[in-house]
Design a protein that fits this description.
This protein is an all-alpha fold and 222 residues long. It is built from 10 helices and no strands. The longest helix is centred in the middle third of the chain and has 29 residues.
Length: 222
């Protein structure tokens, strides 16, 4: 049974993990803490396996990595889709601060391009496999699709702020500044990264060179 094919795993009966049973407050708190700890371990296990290149790990692999029983996974999650959604949303939220460009709009154009490109390369290199899985599962898990859309909108907003001076000059020259901003976003997108890194076999320095050259050309104001 793997994450890619089973979205209908049986939900365990209420109270099957023992948390619902009455007992001393200390025992209940201990069980609750253990439940949260095990649940987090399952989430981390899935994230780690995907990062390592296992894009569709079985429940058995996840349970072994998390050091919990196969059966207990379904005490913490409704089904495999719920586990995948939770793990991928967790990773996207935790990666959000790293995706933010520092000193937005400050410095020369070359300095600003360098900062944005470096941030994108760092985040995409770290989350490559997770983003590939998230995009594949977004077709059947609406929350993931919403999360990916939110991240794309955030990136476009950053681009508009970071390169506001150039975009305003482009607009003043009668060119379509909105189209340029979208083009920069596309150049820095996961699709562009995936094409160059996975299919074209470019190294990170080579991708960096492509991106900096492309963005500089897009934002020319002459």
């Amino acid at each position: 049974m793997s994450l890619g094919n089973d979205h209908t795993a049986t939900i365990m009966p209420s109270g099957s993990d023992g948390v619902a049973d009455a007992g001393p407050i200390g025992e209940v708190d201990g069980r609750t803490m253990r439940r949260h700890r095990n649940r987090d371990a399952v989430i981390r296990a899935l994230i780690e396996l995907i990062r390592e290149g296992d894009l569709d790990p079985t429940v058995a692999k996840i349970a072994e990595r998390a050091q919990v029983s196969h059966r207990s996974i379904f005490r913490y999650f409704e089904d495999l889709a719920d586990l995948a959604r939770t793990a991928l949303e967790t990773e996207m939220l935790e990666s959000l601060p790293e995706a933010m460009v520092s000193d937005v709009g400050r410095g020369t154009l070359d300095e600003r391009i360098d900062r944005m490109v470096d941030v994108r390369l760092r985040v995409l290199a770290k989350t490559d496999h997770l983003l590939r899985v998230a995009r594949a599962k977004a077709r059947v898990i609406p929350e993931l699709d919403e999360g990916i859309t939110m991240l794309a909108e955030l990136q476009r907003d950053q681009i508009r702020q970071h390169f506001a001076a150039e975009l305003e000059a482009i607009r003043a020259a009668g060119r379509n500044a909105d189209a340029i901003a979208v083009s920069v976003a596309v150049a820095l997108s996961y699709d562009a990264w995936d094409q160059m890194h996975r299919f074209d076999g470019l190294s990170l320095p080579e991708i960096r060179d492509v991106w900096t050259t492309s963005i500089r050309a897009l934002l020319r104001t002459d």
